[in-house]
Amino acid sequence: MSLTIYRKAHFNAAHRLYREEWSDDRNLEVFGKCSNPNFHGHNYELEVGLTGTIDPETGYLIDLKLLKDIIREEVEEPFDHKNLNVEVPEFANLNPTVENIAIVIYNKLRQRLDPGFKLTVKLYETPRNFVVYTGD
Amino acid sequence: MSLTIYRKAHFNAAHRLYREEWSDDRNLEVFGKCSNPNFHGHNYELEVGLTGTIDPETGYLIDLKLLKDIIREEVEEPFDHKNLNVEVPEFANLNPTVENIAIVIYNKLRQRLDPGFKLTVKLYETPRNFVVYTGD
Amino acid sequence: MSLTIYRKAHFNAAHRLYREEWSDDRNLEVFGKCSNPNFHGHNYELEVGLTGTIDPETGYLIDLKLLKDIIREEVEEPFDHKNLNVEVPEFANLNPTVENIAIVIYNKLRQRLDPGFKLTVKLYETPRNFVVYTGD
Amino acid sequence: MSLTIYRKAHFNAAHRLYREEWSDDRNLEVFGKCSNPNFHGHNYELEVGLTGTIDPETGYLIDLKLLKDIIREEVEEPFDHKNLNVEVPEFANLNPTVENIAIVIYNKLRQRLDPGFKLTVKLYETPRNFVVYTGD
Amino acid sequence: MSLTIYRKAHFNAAHRLYREEWSDDRNLEVFGKCSNPNFHGHNYELEVGLTGTIDPETGYLIDLKLLKDIIREEVEEPFDHKNLNVEVPEFANLNPTVENIAIVIYNKLRQRLDPGFKLTVKLYETPRNFVVYTGD
Amino acid sequence: MSLTIYRKAHFNAAHRLYREEWSDDRNLEVFGKCSNPNFHGHNYELEVGLTGTIDPETGYLIDLKLLKDIIREEVEEPFDHKNLNVEVPEFANLNPTVENIAIVIYNKLRQRLDPGFKLTVKLYETPRNFVVYTGD
How many angstroms separate the CA atoms of D73 and F91, rounded? Predict the structure, then answer.
């Protein structure tokens, strides 16, 4: 029996969207007010889903406490109250769009989880804009 | 890398459910109070999802401003504060159930978007009733 | 010990904003697209609050089942899936703005409740626009 | 045209997580405070999805009133305000984890629905933890 | 300058409503299915508000970390994953209605907070039923 | 008849909490990770309430379009996608705590509104932390 279990988490961070090799004008043209050199920020809301089979002994797909700890170590501690461009190494050369942040989170969680689980990352940048990434 | 990005929108509209060729009794039997000839209405909440690959240069799947403009032109402007049965041509001969409204929205957005994107339309008629249509 | 208890309810209805004695142009100028003669509609979400003292024997301010029944009889049954302008007598000569709907609901509930309770009516016309009326 | 329609429902229940054949210490080690022998409880929020084709005559995938009645009979009446371990026969020998509750709900609804519909059960144990089960 | 700051918290618990000195029939008559002797449960969502003046040096009304710790010690730790009737001493002789739970929380927090703050406790028993208590 | 009408709005911004004349250590001690010199950010959600009497001719307390425009000019345009500390003059010498941001918003809106209206500002810094300011 295959099933997906989800756990929510959240972090608050500053970022800006830009490419270093582009002029300010070109960054503004492509990324609009998101390219503000002084940064802006968001409350990111995260839903992590794991698909797998249930352990018939416990009735658990995974102990959610374990998943919660992995999310805290891989996402909340390194990202929360940070400037993504300046302080998070994964974005040193990667534009921190909501798309790229979701992929970075996926890759960080993926290496900590049993390969038997399928992983889904849903990331809200605002209550109105969000992405889903499943590694496919 | 394939990913889905979502954008929310909303519109308020009046409608009634009925088939013109049926008697009032038969409409009432099938559609209940939703067949009220004087209309009732809803706040429709819409989530539009686009699945595709990320542009490695920008880190964007699509510029959400562009998607927002397409949703405004194809859905919000023609549907908001309208009577769907009376004023929206797509429902002149089509019962405006939440299922059919989602399909009409899908078809209108589909023709404005790059065929390379897979499109998902989620439409809430109330916070308790909603549909998802993916064109499959 | 004084405390306020709240109960939620909801109804879906069509309406239009206009004054019969005004020209169409003047109605459009004042009420914009809300004056559409073909009607539009909303999912109204209602929160009814009662302030009073707790019955020390039961620990209840009021039996919520009783409050739920009163809301159903006074608001949900007469308003749900109705055209407020056409079918609800209270709006025969009263513009069904969210302000006036809240006051009508307040007055209908007020006469069914013990005068010892203070009554609060919170009414959402959309998730973004709402009013609070307390009879003061 | 294939589409999925969703309907929400809810029930409040007590439960505990444990295996009868395990010692109290082992139950505490595996299930933590969820194994409290005096029970704890949740507001379970349920989203039932049906995937199928739309009836071209009505524009309905299914009459939601029918789905609502089935959910009330199979889930709300037997589960609401109950102790899942003590009073719900399906959990007499099955640990009522959110995973197992979702599967039980799926199986109960599945036998009441046309086999032509694909069924999806999403169950929130808290606003932060939830599962999706599709019978695959 | 007086202002109110709010912090949310939550706990999951089992309870039943009844008076020990009443017969089962009388308890059922007054409290309905909430009097189930096997208990049921809820996800309680709590909003604690403090009204006071802002410290001009910090711009804080209170350090929210301090408020969070007090809520954890006074409410979350003693109530979460507990049976309120059986395990929480305050309800040994007090019916754990949502009204009474809010008052107990208010009294526990009140004694830990500077008397200069006005305290507001909002407690959701379900997303549809909630109370506000301000000690007046 | 006095009533309060509310309108929601939102903006995304970066900020840090600190006092320039304090050492980094003291700022860290008082403001914790919120004092990060590289900034972090939030999606601020705003609810503006106006209390007054209803115009009997229109049934409006205020034309919400007018209120929406004032909020856009006074709050959304100057604050959205900005660094509050660096780019918003009101915070040049004022710590941008959620308390102070609410007061600044109140003062900006207050001077644009008819003195006959009582004004309420509710500002969410995160879904879990928020303030209410009423000018009292």
Answer: 58
